[in-house]
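A.,

Following up on our hallway conversation. Structure tokens first:
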């Protein structure tokens, strides 16, 4: 799954975070990834672009997403899972 967030990446998975209380992105998206798994999809590693309105170069983040997908799909094929479905 891919997400964009106005929160900085350091906000996620940090115990002292007031908003997310130490939960990471995968924790926050559990209901969505569980639904995908339930119907037979393989959930690939999360990709996120953070702090999109202040500090992030969104264009670079989108460019890096293609590299992320290439790597994830190659790893899935090497593991013997067809792309997208188990």
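Then the amino acids I'd put at each of the 86 positions:
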């Amino acid at each position: 799954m891919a997400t964009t967030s106005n929160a900085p990446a350091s906000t996620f998975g940090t115990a002292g975070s007031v908003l997310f209380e130490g939960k990471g992105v995968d924790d926050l998206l559990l209901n969505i990834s569980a639904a995908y798994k339930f119907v037979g999809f393989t959930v690939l590693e999360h990709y996120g672009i953070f702090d999109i309105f202040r500090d992030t170069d969104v264009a670079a983040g989108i460019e890096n997403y293609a590299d992320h997908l290439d790597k994830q799909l190659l790893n899935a094929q090497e593991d013997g899972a067809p792309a997208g479905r188990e």
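The first strand starts at residue 2 and ends at 4. Curious whether your intuition agrees with the design.

B.
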